[in-house]
Structures are given as structure tokens and as C-alpha cells.
Design brief:
The chain is an alpha/beta fold. It is 35% helix and 12% strand. The chain has a single domain, classed as Aldolase class I (TIM Barrel).
């Protein structure tokens, strides 16, 4: 019998060889100015070599005002096209598709970068976010129109680079979420108020992309189906529900979306995205780099550092955290599948073949995306193809990779998976830098 995991998935304009996708992740491995590096090419190629059907890039800013962190490759000018073409070629060599994720951080700008030091982040609102307190200003209509154009121009560049499709990063608290969310968007113009108005920005971007690249280029939307905006600050509004997001997904499909990618949360990180362990000790090692990013960051650092307040902060973070990580978004994905006819991709800690297979067979989703489990085992698709239900040393959901990402190269930092050998762990993390750019030339 054909294994549903390894049955090709047909989108309207794209076919991938199996139902396993590497979701958006990369770390700070590019140049400060947004140009790409050989390390990024090696990073993406590593997962293509491991057997996934498609690699979804890390967030690629469409403009420097929208970057979330420095050292991520941009897609903001035509001079970036040759680099992304090189990335696509490296991935394609392994019979794998490459989907570029277009992003704008809005007010969720963890480290603004020197270019943005003297100006407020753009958002749907003028209110800082309640956790980090990153200051922002509401976008004018002219700024909204300019940003829509930036997404359309980025889409044209991705197609010119020979890539296989696009994903709009409309989840996890970034700019699209800031417009979509009933908990964040407080506008009183045509981009605020009822859901139809809050979805206007996203739908305008989808239509502008279609006008720019046509109807025959793959475009998917990643959305936080359940925002759970009050997971940490419990007196906040909860944000959009699955019912509201289902309506947005229907509109997105009608506007030209070829697939929906299901995530959750109205900020990142979130207690349930990525779900798993939260180590205060590990988080504090890099959170200090954000102290001047927001009006609440020093407060957070001190509260997590103080032995007296640390238990309370840990309780606040964990009070809504799920116990079962793998498949935590499947209910949300199922709700979206009930209202759209395009394929639905689900993310959420997947790393067990039987769990993935059952989710597809039961019609709860059409494919899954993975990040941390593939960092732990880049060849996980090949492990499944060989008949194993899971890797010998699966991801522990310790989230040490996330704790490192603000300052260090991304990778698996769980030393227990390397039998306690710290040097072996670091060698694996650093492997994407070999050969060096000079050696490659």
C-alpha cells in the first residue's frame, strides 16, 4: 500500500514529492545588510538533502523597516535575485521545492538594527506589545499601500529567481497578525473594526501578488488560526478564534491563495509556539540583547533573573502551555479544512511517522511542516522511508535552539543528544559554515 506520507501533494501550481515540509527557520547566518551568505545556502540544502518535499525559507523581509532581526537575507531589491537563485538551485538538486516566505515584522521587531534605531516600528496600532513593549506607530494609508507594493515586488523577484512559490508570514504576531487580530488592531478606518476590515491588508497583498506574478505561481498563507493572545498577560484580549480565522482563510483562497499553513499565537515566542520546555536559565543568556528593544524588556529580564520572582514568571508562562506537543494544531487545521478546498499544511512538533500518517489519513491536514525535529534529525524523512516510526534520538522540545537564536547560529543545542559531548554538538551547529565562502569560490 502507498504510504500517505510519501504520496505526492498536488497544489494548483506546484507538486511536491511527499507530505513533509521544512517550516520557516534559519537563524542569524546572513550579512547585516540583508545580503545572503554561503552558510544560508548550506543550511537550506541540508534539509533538502534529508528528504523533505519542500523547504520554506526563514522570514525574508520585503523592506528593512520590516526586518525582525539583523542577519536574515532580504528580498527587498533586484540585486538579491542572484542569491536566491543560488539557494533555489542548491535545493532543487535534491528533488526538493523551495518556497520563499515573505515577511514584515511590524511592531514585533526583536532587534531593530542600526537602520531603524531612530524610528518607530510600523504597525496597525500605536500601542506597544504587552510582553516586550516594543514601541510602534500606526501605519498611514500611504504606508499601507507602499507595503503592499513591497510584497508584490518581492514576489516578482522570487519568481525571477526561479523559486517554486511564496508563503506570506501572516502569523505569530508579525505585521499581518497585527492587522488581523481583534486583540491588537484598534484602528477606526477601513483597516480596523470588523473582521472584513482587519483582513483587508492581507487580501490586498494577495491580490497585488497575483497581479504581479500571475495565477500560475504558488502562493500560500501561514496564519495563526487561534491567537491565544492572553496566554501570558492574562488580562489581555484573547484575539481571533478559529471561527474568525476560518473566514479569513476562505477570503484568502478566493483572493488567490493556493494553500493554508496552520500555526498559532499572536506573538513569538509563545507558550505554545514553539511548545515544549521553557528554561529561564537558557533564555536569560541571550534575552539581555533585547533589553533596549522595548519598554518592558528590562522588566522581564529582572523578573526572570530574580530568584524570588522567577517561579511566578515561570508559572505565568506555563499556565496555558500544552502537555502534548506533537500535533497540537491539528484541531485548528481540521477547522480550516472544513471551509477551504485548497491543501492545508499543519505545523506543531511533528516527528512520529504514525502520528503524521494518521493526521493525513483522517483528513485533518494534507501535509505537515517541521522545524525543531528536523534540526535534531535533518534526515528524518529518510528515517521514515526506511520504515522507522521515529528517529533513534528524537527532538526533546527543550527549545535550547530558540534560546540561542538571538545571538548564535541556529542548531540543536541539546547536549544530551550528543551523549554529553559539547564539542560534537558545536561542530554540528557550525557545519553549515564549511566550506567557507572563500573555499566555495
Amino acid at each position: 500500500m502507498t504510504d500517505p506520507i510519501f504520496t505526492p501533494l498536488e497544489f494548483r501550481n506546484l507538486s511536491i514529492k511527499n507530505r513533509l515540509m521544512r517550516s520557516s527557520i534559519s537563524g542569524r547566518i546572513d550579512n547585516y545588510d540583508g545580503s545572503g551568505t554561503p552558510a544560508r545556502i548550506a543550511w537550506e540544502e541540508k534539509f533538502a538533502r534529508g528528504g523533505v518535499g519542500a523547504v520554506i525559507s526563514a522570514h525574508a523581509p520585503v523592506h528593512v523597516r520590516g526586518r525582525i532581526l539583523p542577519n536574515y537575507a532580504f528580498i527587498d531589491h533586484d540585486d538579491k535575485i542572484p542569491f536566491w537563485h543560488a539557494v533555489g538551485e542548491a535545493v532543487h538538486a535534491h528533488d526538493c521545492k523551495f518556497i520563499l516566505q515573505l515577511s514584515h515584522g511590524g511592531r514585533q521587531q526583536d532587534i531593530a538594527g542600526v537602520e531603524n534605531d531612530d524610528r518607530l516600528a510600523l504597525s496597525s496600532t500605536g500601542r506597544p506589545d504587552s510582553f516586550h513593549g516594543i514601541r510602534c506607530q500606526p501605519m498611514t494609508r500611504r504606508e499601507i499601500a507602499r507595503t503592499v507594493r513591497q510584497f508584490a515586488d518581492a514576489a516578482r523577484r522570487a519568481r525571477a529567481a526561479g523559486l517554486d512559490g511564496l508563503e506570506l508570514h501572516a502569523c505569530n504576531g508579525y505585521l499581518f497578525t497585527q492587522f488581523l487580530s481583534s486583540a491588537i488592531n484598534d484602528r477606526d478606518d477601513e483597516y480596523g473594526g470588523p473582521l472584513e476590515n482587519r483582513a483587508r491588508f492581507l487580501l490586498e497583498v494577495i491580490r497585488a501578488i497575483r497581479d504581479e506574478v500571475g495565477d500560475d505561481f504558488h502562493l500560500q498563507v501561514k496564519i495563526s488560526v487561534v491567537e491565544d493572545n492572553n496566554a501570558i498577560i492574562f488580562w489581555d484580549k484573547p484575539g481571533n478564534t478559529a471561527h474568525e480565522s476560518a473566514q479569513v482563510c476562505e477570503w484568502a483562497q478566493a483572493a488567490g491563495a493556493d494553500a493554508i499553513h496552520v500555526s498559532m499565537g499572536s506573538l513569538f515566542p509563545h507558550p505554545n509556539n514553539p511548545a515544549g520546555e521553557f528554561s529561564v536559565k537558557d533564555a536569560l543568556r541571550t534575552y539581555d540583547i533585547m533589553i533596549d528593544s522595548g519598554i518592558h524588556t528590562l522588566r522581564n529580564f529582572l523578573l526572570f533573573s530574580n530568584p524570588l520572582s522567577r517561579p511566578f514568571m515561570r508559572l505565568l508562562w506555563n499556565r496555558t502551555a500544552v502537555k502534548e506537543v506533537e500535533g497540537l494544531n491539528l484541531d485548528a487545521a481540521e477547522a480550516i479544512k472544513e471551509v477551504v478546498t485548497v491543501p492545508v499544511i499543519c505545523t506543531g512538533g511533528f516527528q512520529t511517522a504514525s502520528v503524521i500518517r494518521r493526521a493525513i489519513e483522517d483528513g485533518r491536514c494534507d501535509a505537515v511542516s517541521m522545524a525543531r525535529p528536523l534540526m535534531a534529525n535533518p534526515d528524518l524523512p529518510q528515517i521514515f522511508a526506511a520504515g522507522a516510526d521515529e528517529a533513534e534520538s528524537p527532538c526533546t522540545y527543550c527549545n535550547k535552539c530558540l534560546d540561542a537564536v538571538l545571538e548564535h547560529p541556529l542548531g540543536c543545542y541539546d547536549v544530551t543528544r550528543f551523549d554529553g559531548d559539547h564539542d560534537a554538538m558545536i561542530a554540528e551547529v557550525m557545519s553549515i559554515f564549511e566550506p567557507s565562502g572563500f573555499a566555495r569560490v
